[in-house]
Amino acid sequence: MKKYVISILLFLVFFLNINFVSAEDEKILIIDSKQEQQPEQQEQQQQTEIKMTRIILNKTILSLTEGDTEILSATIQPENATNKDLIWSSSNVNIAKVENGKVTAKNAGTAKIKVSNKDNTVSAECNVTVMEKAPVEIPMKKIEVNKLTLKMKVGDKETIVAKILPENATEKDIFWSVTNGKSKIKVVTVENGTITALNKGTAVVSVSNKSKKVITKISVTVLEADNKNEEVKITKLNMNKPSLNLKIGEKETLIASILPSNATNKELIWTSSDTSIVTVENGKVSAVGKGEAIITVTNKDGTIEAKSNIKVLEVSDEEIPLKKIVINRTEMSLYVGNEQLLVASLIPGNTTDTEVYWSSSNEKVAKVEEGRVIATGIGGAVITITNKDKTVSATCDVIVTDLLDEDRESFIDFDFIKILAIGIGVLLLFGFLIKIGKN
After folding, report:
1. How far apart are CA 278 and CA 292, in angstroms?
2. Residues 6 or more apart whose Cβ sits within 8 Å of residue 120
3. Is the pLDDT of residue 18 over 90?
């Protein structure tokens, strides 16, 4: 009986222990199941998309020069947006192109740089202005010519070809000039590189840049023509008065100078465009009617000409006084034998007081003929232009030198200054000795 009871008790204990373990296992399985469900719920929550609502650029206006680059940065809101992909574009890639926010200026103009999200629902823009890149100044370093020495005969023409170096120099302008040496006779003239031989002698033709820092010189020797009987043609005619105002009944003589001076046939033909206004005979102009006409002088074959515009007023027309004379230069430097033309403007332009007179304060230094200044000797002179009654005038200071260095404009007589200083010193010493003697 006792054994039977003990067996029953052991059975009950075993049964209860199994049930407890099963319950615990079930509890653990339930907990594990819940723990496995939590990451899945989190993954589902993470799969919920957070959309981009705004894009902000660090710059909305941008100014660049051709070739420049600039980085645009974009700020996304909200910061935790799911898809942060951005698309960059330009309204005109020929003016400004963009790649991942890097803007490159291509050509002058304006363009818009746009950045947007992938589906183009959110965007921002930057207005870009591209300015033209200033050209790099490349100075002229040398002027090459096809001939450095030239021998010509009176009446000949020769064209000098000048080449600027470096070839890509941005400074392109060249200037031609002539130095006819010590002779007062004009040996040659030059115009755009074309040299015309006028008289026997030597001259130097120079071609330079504006500042004369780059200069090349051509030595020219002009000889008499081999055949004295060979015709020397007129190459140029200069009218002493390119314009003239007259009153009906007045007369004026126009003078045409011939170049070269040794031209074989110096016969000139004078004509008027309207003989009812002015007539002309061998340069003598007569005003016969109110209006405007042109006096033309030509060589015999009509290939070379010069003109003068004539305005004729009625005697009763109201006189308009001259108020001012302006000349194109107020000072000039010349070498002996050189010439320079002064051009005068009368103010007001419709003045009836148009008769002017040129004069020189020292014709041994510079003389003037209808505005053409001729350097005759070393020194200084004042060229003056006045109206008929000398109430209005203008002047030009002229310095004439015989120096070979074109860059020197004046010189100082140091010997004279030395003698003057010694003389002053002697006088001061003499005065001091007299004062001591009196004491």
Report:
1. 8
2. 87
3. no
User: Which tens digit of pLDDT belongs to each residue from 311-328?
Assistant: 998 876 567 888 899 999
Query: What is the pLDDT confidence band of residue 122, given thresholds at 50, 70 and 90?
Result: very high
Residues linked to residue 162 through DSSP beta bridges, in sequence order: 145
Contacts 24+ apart (CB under 8 A), 83-88: 83/49, 83/51, 83/52, 83/117, 83/118, 84/52, 85/117, 85/118, 86/55, 86/115, 86/116, 86/117, 87/115, 87/116, 87/117, 87/118, 87/120, 88/113, 88/114, 88/115
Residue 172 identity (one-letter amino acid): K
For residue 196, what pLDDT is reported?
93
**Is pLDDT above 70 for 27?**
no
Q: Which amino acid does the sequence have at 20?
A: F
pTM for the whole structure: 0.33
283-287's contacts with Cβ under 8 Å and 24+ in sequence apart are 283/253, 283/254, 283/255, 283/256, 284/251, 284/252, 284/253, 284/254, 285/244, 285/246, 285/251, 285/252, 285/253, 285/254, 285/310, 286/250, 286/251, 287/246, 287/247, 287/248, 287/249, 287/250, 287/251, 287/312
Angle formed at CA 152 by CA 146 and CA 156, multiple of 5 degrees: 100
